[in-house]
Amino acid sequence: xxxxxxxxxxxxxxxxxxxxxxxADHQALQAIGVDLALFVGDFGNESxxxxxxxxxxxxxxxxVFGNHDAWFTASDWGRxxxxxxxxxxxxxxxxxxxxxxxxxxxxxRDFQQFSLSVVGGRPFTxxxxxxxxKQFMRExxxxxxxxxxxxxxxxxxxxxxxxxLIFLAHNGxxxxxxxxxSICGRDWNPIGGDxxxxxxAWAIASVREQGKQVPLVTFGHMHHRxxxxxxxxxxxxxxxxxxxxxxxxxxxxxxxTEKDGLPAARNFSLVTLVNGTVEKITLVWLRNNGEIISQxxxxxxxx
Length: 303
Known about the structure:
This protein has helices at 23-31, 48-55, 76-80, 91-99, 134-141, 146-158, 198-209; strands spanning 8-14, 36-39, 61-63, 108-111, 116-120, 164-168, 213-219, 237-239, 245-248, 255-256, 265-274, 277-286, 292-300.
C-alpha cells in the first residue's frame, strides 16, 4: 500500500493588534506563503479602519472579537466614554458586517482545502469566572450564562464535517495554570489566579469526548509582557495530557517602528501543522518583504 502524502499547512496566528495593522502585514504574510491566518481579536477600540483592512486580506482567514472591539458598547462605563453617537452608528455591528464569514465568534468556518474547521469561542470576553456585560451578550447573541455559552460552542464544533478542529478565541480556557505567569494567569492585583474562560474549557473537553481531534487552541488577551515583573515573559505555549497545544499569541506591541534607517518589523506566530498535528510553533519578526529578522522556536514536537 502506497504511503499517504504529507499534508503541511502553515498558520499565522495574529495576536492582539491594538491598531497595529498595515498593508505591509498583508505583503509579509503573502511573501512567506502562509496558508491560513487566524486573528484573536482586539483589533482596536471598535476600529473600523483596521477591521476593514483585515477584511481585505486576500488569503484564507478566521477571526474572533476581543473585549476592545466592543469597548464603547458592551459596558456602562464604556458607553459613557463613547466618542461617537451610538444612536446613529453601531460600530460593533459594522465590524461584524465587514468581516462577514471570516468572523467565527460563536461560530465556525470549514476549510475543506485543509481538512479542518476553525471554531470560535465566546467573543468580546474579558476572561475570568464572572459573566460580564450581561445585557450586551443577551441582546447580541441571546446568551445568558456560561452554561448556555459552552453548550453553543460545543454544538457548533460537533456539527463540523471535519474531524480536526482548531479553537480560536480571544481569551484562553481555564485549567492551564493559576500563577500570574501562566498562559491565562492574572498578572494584576490581586496577583495570581486562573483567568481563563470556563465555557471554552468545557466545550473543548466535550468535543474531544465525542471523538473530535483538537490539535490547537489559540488565543491572546493576556499579553506576553507581564505587568508585575519584567524579568520574564508569560508562558506562551502549554500542552495538555491529551496532546492539545495551547498558544497565546499576544506579543504586544506587534509592530516595532522604524529605527536606525531600517523599515518597521512585525510579528506573527507561525504554526506548522502536518497531517493535522502541530509540529512546530515559531514567533517571527518580519519585514514587509518577508525577510525574517528574528525567530524564536516556542515549541517543537518530540515525535
